[in-house]
Design a protein that fits this description.
homodimer, alpha+beta, Arc Repressor Mutant, subunit A, 2 domains, 6 helices, 13% strand, disordered N terminus, DNA-binding, WH-like_DNA-bd_sf (chains A, B), DNA binding (chains A, B), transcription (chains A, B)
DNA sequence: CTGCATCCTGGGCGATACTG
DNA sequence: CAGTATCGCCCAGGATGCAG
């Protein structure tokens, strides 16, 4: 409501970088495509897991998708796959150092998500009076 | 290749938060769903634009999708819509302060994307030596 | 110029069953 | 237990045309 500056939202941004910037974002989102990868990375950020554990903890994902995503992520060097035991076979997945660099990014995503949820809740409350 | 620590990737993470964390990420990605919103926000991070300008600068997007995404984002309070002139009608879009908070997040996405592109390029160079 | 309605296709994703 | 194969749904999103 405060009629603040009408400036470019984020200072320090030069329009000349715009194209590159967008392309770079696109590169990242390309790797993180689909419905599940970010969730899987988030989970693995809390420690390595076996296939079946991930399957249980990522609610809603099917076996096919998990396999596919995992394979895809391995090819992109986001996770490391290790066969633990042969009988019965079991496989461990963990983030690569490379992918660990993504965790702070994902954390900030989460941060914003929390605030957003707050805002949405507030909105619904605003019907009667302003409440804390 | 360095056999580093086998610890939990990111210290300071408690498993008890895992569920909440993932949910929060999901909330954000829910708002940012689809193929275009992040790109649009990135662009608008470089300054307000008119509908037709965005249409031109976001390569590949169709008019229908732009309208749809814009409306959706307005409902989520990510952007502000302002009618500039009536004849011919023209509309300006800009990020809300609320959404500006997302820019640093997107920036880090871009940051990682740049590094990732580097890595991919490196990989192709590495053909000569041992490959699986 | 901005924005909506309609039609249509591709592929993301789920369910199930099967192999090693 | 880990992963693959098959089938099919469904909807994001492209193309086009119309309206204010």
């Amino acid at each position: 409501m405060e009629n603040e500056t009408e400036k470019v939202p984020c200072e320090g941004r030069e329009y000349s970088n715009c194209g590159k910037h967008i392309a770079a974002v696109h590169d990242t989102m390309d790797v993180l495509n689909g419905k599940w990868k970010i969730t899987i990375i988030s989970l693995l950020g809390f420690g390595k897991r076996r296939y079946s554990e991930i399957l249980k903890e990522v609610t809603g994902i099917s076996g096919k998708m998990l396999s596919r995503e995992l394979k895809d992520m391995e090819m992109n060097l986001l996770i490391k796959r290790t066969v633990i035991s042969e009988q019965p076979i079991s496989v461990m997945y963990e983030l690569t150092d490379y992918c660990v660099d993504l965790l702070p990014v994902i954390d900030s995503l989460a941060e914003w998500g929390k605030r957003h949820r707050q805002c949405i809740v507030e909105q619904f409350k605003q019907e009667p009076v302003e409440v804390i």
